[in-house]
Specification:
alpha+beta, Gyrase A, domain 2, five-stranded antiparallel β-sheet, 3 helices, 5 strands
Length: 101
């Protein structure tokens, strides 16, 4: 199990990653795509990256919008696993031309 990040570490991450927010012991980001097909492709790519890391996000999709929440449930909050996956998600979002909601 990974250790929870300190509040200072979470604040540092958020300052360096302005697309992400923090609420309810989780990192959050909402992204908009051109259409449902692109949003679905994004979800698949996130799924592949998450599976490689054995760390799985909470995902919600409504048409062209995808909401992501990252938390490490067995640690009860955000860990380095979440920050690592957030970086991968950011790279995928840029490559796919997503924009923030």
């Amino acid at each position: 199990m990974s250790d929870r990040l300190t509040n200072d570490a979470i604040t540092s991450f958020l300052e360096a990653s302005p697309h992400w927010g923090y609420e309810g012991e989780a990192l959050h980001r909402s992204l908009k795509f051109k259409n449902f097909s692109e949003a679905l492709a994004f979800l698949v790519r996130i799924g592949i990256e998450a599976e490689k890391r054995d760390h799985h996000p909470e995902l919600r999709n409504v048409y062209a919008t995808v909401d992501v929440a990252l938390t490490t449930h067995d640690a009860g909050g955000v860990t380095s696993k979440d920050v690592d996956l957030a970086g991968a998600i950011d790279a995928i979002a840029v490559a796919m031309g997503a924009r923030d909601v």
